[in-house]
Design the sequence.
């Protein structure tokens, strides 16, 4: 598997609020055998997750998701779920607070056929861990710290949904479609995130959680400074077939079909046409939880990291994505090229079509200067 396939999901006409465009995704029938619930955590603040020996991930984590493939109590809350209202007058955080408790793992098995995982953080931790160990050979260019600690600590910036201008209003203003199991969120018509769940009831409960998600820097800027986007408008040409209600209905359906095709081939192309590297996180009966990374190609448009749950035929039951900034794509691209060259600077520079001095400048500009031995900046 190297691509995302949204088979069974159909895009409905978009809903526009200022610079935010929401595109509902509807299923003809729910995915059988899997339900998704939310596990809410009290208070606002950062949490620490143990991801390996001497390795920890710290971030703002408002909730977890519980995947349930037991087939029992499809409409009931998952075991261990803590019920609380989204927002409820609470003030979203302006800064991070020190951790107060730990989650043992990014994905943790619960009693019965249930798995608790941290949505989106699976993908973000996978990106942060990209070639995290640093050089495996003591080439002369790399510092002792690079050989001892690799890229530790590694940090990236993101914005809470509360701070994405217009997103909260859009999520409150628009009705949820019958059969809706997902949504694509756009800021100034740049794809910000995709969110898909197995069942319409799951989506109805999890729809408000989008305001608590993390979004990329570019998304925040586009929503803040971008102009309002054009609303969807159906245009029916005059003709004899519009003389009847059936003809009018058929013409309206044709407009919906044309919008769906235009969305998949134009708006969502950067997500669906890209190839990804998938890393299996957990197998859940006939379903599998994966996280994925893009190819980190320069100058190729928006690129996304994310996580997905697929069935045995590859059908996407769950999906959540995060749009990387240009700086994050450049860092991923640079790390990939260094690792491919076994961290030998002359070989990596040749692969990048540049000089060793320019490569050193790029490493410094990417925030990885501590990996290099002290030397003249030339």
Sequence:
């Amino acid at each position: 598997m190297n691509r995302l396939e949204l088979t069974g999901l159909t895009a409905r006409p978009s809903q526009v609020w200022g610079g935010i465009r929401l595109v509902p995704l509807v299923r003809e029938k729910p995915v059988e055998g899997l339900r998704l619930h939310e596990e809410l955590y009290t208070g606002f603040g950062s949490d620490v997750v143990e991801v390996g020996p001497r390795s920890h991930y710290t971030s703002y984590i408002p909730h977890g998701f519980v995947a349930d493939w037991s087939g029992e109590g499809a409409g009931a809350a998952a075991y261990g779920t803590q019920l609380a209202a989204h927002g409820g007058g609470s003030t979203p955080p302006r800064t991070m607070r020190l951790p107060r408790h730990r989650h043992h793992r990014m994905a943790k098995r619960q009693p019965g056929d249930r798995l608790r995982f941290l949505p989106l953080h699976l993908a973000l931790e996978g990106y942060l861990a990209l070639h995290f160990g640093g050089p495996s050979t003591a080439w002369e260019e790399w510092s002792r710290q690079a050989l001892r600690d690799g890229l530790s600590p590694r940090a990236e910036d993101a914005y809470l949904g509360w701070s994405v201008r217009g997103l909260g209003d859009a999520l409150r203003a628009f009705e949820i479609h019958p059969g809706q199991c997902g949504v694509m969120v756009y800021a100034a018509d740049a794809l910000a995130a995709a969110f898909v769940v197995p069942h319409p009831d799951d989506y109805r409960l999890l729809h408000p959680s989008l305001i608590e998600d993390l979004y990329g820097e570019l998304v925040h800027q586009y929503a803040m400074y971008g102009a309002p986007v054009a609303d969807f408008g159906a245009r029916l040409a005059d003709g004899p077939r519009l003389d009847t209600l059936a003809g009018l209905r058929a013409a309206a359906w044709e407009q919906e079909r044309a919008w769906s095709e235009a969305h998949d081939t134009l708006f969502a192309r950067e997500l669906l046409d890209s190839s990804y590297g998938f890393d299996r996180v957990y197998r859940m009966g006939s379903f599998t939880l994966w996280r994925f990374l893009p190819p980190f190609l320069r100058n190729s448009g928006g690129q996304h990291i994310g996580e997905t749950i697929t069935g045995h035929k590859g059908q996407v039951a769950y999906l959540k994505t995060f749009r990387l900034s240009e700086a994050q794509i450049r860092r991923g691209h640079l790390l990939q090229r260094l690792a491919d060259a076994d961290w030998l600077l002359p070989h990596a520079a040749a692969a990048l079509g540049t000089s060793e001095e320019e490569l050193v400048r790029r490493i410094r500009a990417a925030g990885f200067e501590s990996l290099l031995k002290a030397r003249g900046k030339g």
Remarks:
- The two ends are 45 Å apart (CA to CA).
- The chain is about 25% helix and 25% strand.
- The longest helix spans residues 245-267.
